[in-house]
Design a protein that fits this description.
One of its GO terms (molecular function) is DNA binding. The chain has about 300 residues and is an all-alpha fold. The chain is built from 15 helices and two strands. It has three domains: about 10-80, Orthogonal Bundle (Multidrug-efflux Transporter Regulator, Chain: A, Domain 2), CATH 1.10.1660.10; about 110-205, no CATH class; about 210-304, no CATH class. The protein has a two-stranded antiparallel sheet with strand order 1-2.
Amino acid sequence: MDDVSRTFTIGELARRTGLAVKTIRFYSDEGLLPPTDRTPSGYRLYDARSLARLELIRTLRELGLGLAEITQVLASETTVPRLAARHVAALDEQIHRLRLRRAVLRAVVKRESELEEVKLMNKLASMSDDERARLVDEFWTEMTEGLEVDSGFYDRMRSAKPTLPDDPSPEQVEAWVEFAELIQDPAYRQAVRSMSERHAEVRAAGINPQPLPVHQEKLHSWADRAQALRDAGTPPSSKAAQKLAGELERAAVGLTRPELADRIEQHNDARAERYWQLLGIMNGWPPIPSRADGMAYLVSALRG
């Protein structure tokens, strides 16, 4: 007798499929695998279609579908692709959470974090991109509330949002934790608010609120050259440093050296620079070099 026309006991199904007898019996009791016949002694029998049905049930169970969902599929109340799409979405979310958890644990190992920091890191890492963006929006709203500032400039500042990838590195998780701590630090918030107030004041007076009336790339070039002098141990009063200060003075027409020094110093906050470096780490931007020390050296050279 071929397999198409023959019948099988639960034991034979178990041998053919590798499933336990009690598992097959459970599926049968739950109505997923109704017997096609019974022996004179009352033992359940199953045909070739039952065997195929059992293989389908096993496959769907291995994919994570519940008994109720499998019942719907077998009763043609839904389709496998529809259920699969639902499970893919759920698995994607679960994988995302597991990746974040792994990154947090790696960061904990790297930082040798204590319990309170572990709690904070886990809480911050679990936030969504929308929640992270909301923190940034709230920060810049407080920094400019009630002030007549250059809306275009501050919109650009506000538009840069932290976005962690689906599989963040420990460095990106650490960057987000440090970033969140930074924008919630009262001292830093006060410093940025004071900058915004000065920005509004000089703008109201018709003065360019930027630190120097030169292109940003040029200012960065001066800062990098100043950093090189500083790293070489060259004092700000040296001929080379004073030559650099003279270039600055000639480029910033109408500003004296003390005025230039004051402007640069007002805008030269290492924490503000760190703000952008952390955003760069989270968002996968090219590394942002540190220029705070170079700017401080320029200030000393201008006052030298």
